[in-house]
Amino acid sequence: MQEEISELRKKGYSREQIKEIIGCSSFTLSKYLPGAYPSKIGQEIISLHEEGKTFLEIVGFGYSKSTISKWLKGKKKNSTPVVLKPKNSRPKESHSSKWRREIRRKRLAFVREIFNNQCQKCGYNICQSALHFHHLKNKQFAISGSRKIGMPRLLDEVKKCCLLCANCHAEVHEGLWDTDTLTLVVFPDIHEVPQDLIRPPGVRLSSEQKEKENAWIEKRKSEIQIQKEVLKTEKDINLKEVRLKEVPRSQIQDLFKKHHYLGASHKGSFFNLGLFTEEELIGCALITNPVRQGSEGYLEISRFLLLSNNKNLGSKFLSLIIQFIKTNYSCKGVQSFSDDSVHSGTIYKAANFKLQDRKFKTYNYDGIHKKTIYQRALMYEMSEHEYAKEFGLARVPESPKSKYTYNF
């Protein structure tokens, strides 16, 4: 029966049609036909798996993780030898994490000192861990869990509290006595707080580290400059002959890195699409699942690139993308964003996309994305601001982005 079911499935019969022809139950059909018959991409992924490629090695061929998981569901996973870590081994704690852990202890000691390190009700002062901060009004956060809260904000929150031992604290919550009987405490001004409780000590970089980072920054700026260069090539293209097809991610990733103003996308994609005339690639697009709130049910064109400036080629490409998604995926519609500093979204308007709203402004550092600078700063146990100051990177405000949607 399994062979008969597989043959019918290969011929294109639906699950309902197979049930009628064979006369089997849904349970039996699901047993012998657990999933859809593999598409061309599915067959390629399965063949790579059968060759002994691991999951991550197949990702390197340009397929998204979700697509690989779909076609390898239920199959035994190939794996590389696992190198076991020594017992009780922990990742090295960064300078900033050590500082936050230590500074939390010092800050709590400082604010307890304001209350003379004793319970305001009974005077208990033996164990500091038994002294609790009780909020009198408008609690914003717990004082004991203020690891990532700045000292000025912490001090403002402590002004709403009184310091009680565990027993007196429990009695207050039981309503056995009123906190109005407590005497007021005089709080210090923020300028009187020691500077080492407000900001971490500076991190000194060696001359070799500075030279390495300056070289990386110059290289990144030059890459960004190349990405901003507009392709001015124009070829003799018949729009009726262009066609759209799925391509491996690796085939178009380098094009985005070189020519798209945002560079390559690191998000997983639903579809990697290429626009072709005969066998020449003249455009590419990345269709992803939106991560922004309010975009549920839509697919997003996260990267869109044309390698030729022919008139109406962009509108033709968008129309083919819409037609492809309608055929291969069930959703509300398609959305995309345009950066006003790069283009005003004319191509979307020409393809009947509707302008929905404009997003708030953000910033970068001399063209380098702020998340990239944040990650580089973590390598040297610095904050984003300290890294930018150390290497002379100016914070540049970005123009708002416009959201366009096409509803099916």
What does this structure look like?
There is one protein chain. The chain has 408 residues and is α+β, with helices and mostly antiparallel strands. The chain folds into three domains: 70 residues, no CATH class; 103 residues, no CATH class; 199 residues, Aminopeptidase (3-Layer(aba) Sandwich), CATH 3.40.630. The protein contains 15 helices and twelve strands. It is extended, with a radius of gyration of 30 Å.
**Which segments are poorly predicted (pLDDT under 50) over 5 or more consecutive residues?**
none
Fraction in helix: 25-40%
Q: Give the strand content.
A: 15-25%
* Rg on CA atoms, Å: 30 Å
CATH-assigned homologous superfamily of the largest domain? Gcn5-related N-acetyltransferase (GNAT)
CATH class assignment of the largest domain: Alpha Beta
Could you say what the CATH topology of the largest domain is called?
Aminopeptidase
| Secondary structure tally: strands | 12
How far is it from the N-terminal to the C-terminal residue, by CA?
41 Å
Order of helices and strands: HHHHHHHEHEHHEHEEEHEHEEEHHEE
Calculate the mean pLDDT score and round it: 81
Shape: extended
CATH architecture of the largest domain: 3-Layer(aba) Sandwich
